[in-house]
Specification:
Layout lengths: L2 E4 L5 E5 L2 E6 L2 E7 L5 E5 L3 E2 L1 H10 L2 E5 L5 E5 L7 H11 L2 H29 L5 H16 L3 H22 L17 H23 L18 H7 L3 H14 L8 E3 L5 E3 L1 H15 L2 E3 L6 E3 H16 L13
Parallel strand pairs: 1-5, 2-6, 5-7
Antiparallel strand pairs: 2-3, 3-4, 7-8, 9-10, 11-12
Length: 331
Amino acid sequence: MPTLYVTEPGAQIEKEYGRFLVTKGDDVLLAVPAVRVSQIVLVGSVDVTTPALSALLRDGIGLTLISATGELLGRLVPAESRHIPLRHAQYDRARDPAFCLTVSRGYVRGKLHNCLRLAQRWARTRPQVEALHIERIAQMAPGVAEAPDLETLRGLEGQASRSYFAAFRQALQREAGFEKRVRRPPTDPINALLSLGYTFLTDNLMTACEIVGLDPYDGFFHADKYGRPALALDLMEEFRAVVVDSAVLNLVNRHILTAADFQSAPGGGVRLKQAGMREFCRHYSARINTPVIHPSIGRRLTYQKCFEVQAQALRQVIEGKQKEYIPFTTR
């Protein structure tokens, strides 16, 4: 079932019989059967009525609030999993350095594989993408299995990411103005799009963790930090390039979003204007609902379903039902 993104300032989510309504004043902007909605994401100043909130909780539909600048403000989710033994197993595993390293190697192996495949694809159609960057990513891959600790593994991942983003910059149109990855605040339109996309993706992976009964805040690769959904960030590593980065490249190179769609953000940096935000949400939704061949299952699933499959695979490893975490990799 799809995610409903609502970006219209001053809009309101209401519940009427078996439908969710998006209204503004006396106008109904959209009416969607509740059975067709898996999650609702509100961007900016959008309200929700109490009956709608009750219906979301009763039907097990998550609600996410994201600021106009792309910051994840909070989430309303139904009651957490009552599978206490699973949570205890997850917390115990997170205190085991050997387990953390083994699982994290899977995350990084998947990420580097997908970054490499994507960069190779760009190079076939964009001669400005230098082979040097692709070679550097490829050189990092063998070191993943040999990394003796998490610090070394994080260093390899960081080096590969820098080479990957160098190739990403060359795959963009020259007028895009992207030099390197800048996070807080994003200083140019490309970084603003990447940050927004990663916010959405984080929310998707938090939901996937919760669906299978895992705590999205206790991870194995990302260091624990107050308020950081470490496990969701772990799982999203293998999806960053194939979901967010490819969508951003498409939006920019096809001139669907241009410099005119951005404005200065409060506190510095840039952000999307209202029309640009609607366009981004539309394309992001289309991207996560794109069917792909899942390498372990061997059949087509949407990316959104792949998130859940990977979370379930991780659960199997945590519970000792599978020996190795197999990451999602693209062809």
